[in-house]
Amino acid sequence: MRKKWEVALRREGFTASESSVICSEHFKQDEFDRTGQIDSEMVLFPPSSASRFTSKDYVLPASPTALKARLNEALARVESLERERKNAMAREKRAKTTVRSLLGDLREKNLINEELKERLDFYSDLQIDFKAKQGHEYSKDHREFALTLHLHGPKAYKYLRETKNVPLPHPHTLQRWLCSVDGKPGLNKMMLDMLERRCQEDQATYGCVALMLDAMAIRK
């Protein structure tokens, strides 16, 4: 049986050993024995045709000229794939932008004032993926940006979402998020945590803050 495989492979000077193997991709499914009547999980039937092992895809040409031509074909294929990869990366980069560019556009169209722009500048480096589908999972920073913009600039929010097709959450989603905010009287832990995180991220801007407390009557 081993001799039959050596002949079928047609590899000059090749002698099969106990550890010699052949890739299963070269065989059809009906050439495997999966009956379970033998110890091995899959055993190949005796080779019925050697044509697949002499295909130009698996056998190197004997002529140096033909070998060089095959190499040039492979190199051209590699260059083509590399160009495709770079083009895909460029498309991916164009599909993403940052909040900074969005704020500049909104300011030029007078959809936000300078005060709101300065407030949102904290999120300037936040990336917006235009390829993301509506309703995808939003990060904590994306949520804060969306809530702040919608609260202080609803027209700007609508412009970005409906005209510029920025994948911002639907206003109903924002309302659902706000329903989960703890609005009970007293110090709001979520706001204190946010201030602490801002201070850690930007010590120069948020290193010194004033905490103002006020009291109000609440009717049941």
TrEMBL record:
Residues 106-177 form the THAP9-like helix-turn-helix domain. It comes from the Eukaryota. Residues 184-220 form the Transposable element P transposase-like RNase H domain. It comes from Dissostichus mawsoni (Antarctic cod). It holds the Pfam family TNP-like_RNaseH_N. InterPro entries: THAP2, THAP9-like_HTH, TNP-like_RNaseH_N. Residues 71-98 form a coiled coil. This is THAP-type domain-containing protein. Keywords: Coiled coil. The keyword Coiled coil applies. SUPFAM superfamilies: Glucocorticoid receptor-like (DNA-binding domain).
